[in-house]
Amino acid sequence: MQQQVRSAGTPASPNTATLAVTIGAFYPIGAIYPLGYTLALTGGAPNVFSFQNNKLTIRVAAGTPVQIQYQLNDPAYVLVGIAFKPMGAPGAGRLEFPVVTATRTPLSSSLVVQDASLASLQGIDFSYVIVVQQVATGFIGIIDPDIENDPV
């Protein structure tokens, strides 16, 4: 399935969650701490998406794909990529999250992730990291929240 990227100003569908990313403190990989950050759910149907304690929960019927958009409006950092792992199971999340699209401008960057909502992965929590690059130094850091796929 091909993913459509929304242009600025286009309203999100009810099956798209938007998470605003704010970097508070940058620590490159290898430092003692991961990035100091906040994530805030700023869009998405409340009956589909909830966000609490840095954990995004998605409730849809199996086979109903949804999108998750991570939006960083800070020219000092760039969202570089994202990696997933099902918690308590082997794998890398390639089947559940088959499409990731990065968009960058001089002032912001975003990642749009397609969650396929596969029946075989309903009820599975995914840990993931968002890879961030600091523009001034080129250093790489990570953000480390969770996603839970709940059956309807």
Strand content: over 45%
Q: How would you characterize the largest beta sheet? A: 6 strands, mixed
Tell me the number of structural domains: 1
Round the mean pLDDT to the nearest integer and report it: 83
Radius of gyration: 15 Å
Low-confidence parts: 1-12
Q: Supply the helix-strand structural class.
A: mainly beta
Tell me the CATH topology. Answer: Immunoglobulin-like
The residue fraction in helices comes out at under 10%
Assembly state here?
single chain
Order of helices and strands: EEEEEEEEEEE
Level-1 CATH class name: Mainly Beta
Give me the number of helical elements.
0
- Give a count of the beta strands, DSSP E runs of length 2 or more: 11
Distance between the termini: 22 Å
Q: Rough shape?
A: globular
**CATH second-level architecture:** Sandwich
Description:
This protein is mainly beta. The protein has a single domain (16-150), classed as Immunoglobulin-like (Sandwich). It has strands at residues 16-25, 36-43, 49-52, 55-59, 66-72, 77-86, 99-104, 109-115, 125-134, 140-143, 146-150. The protein contains no helices and eleven strands. The strands form two sheets. Strands 3, 4, 6, 9, 10 and 11 form a six-stranded mixed sheet that branches.
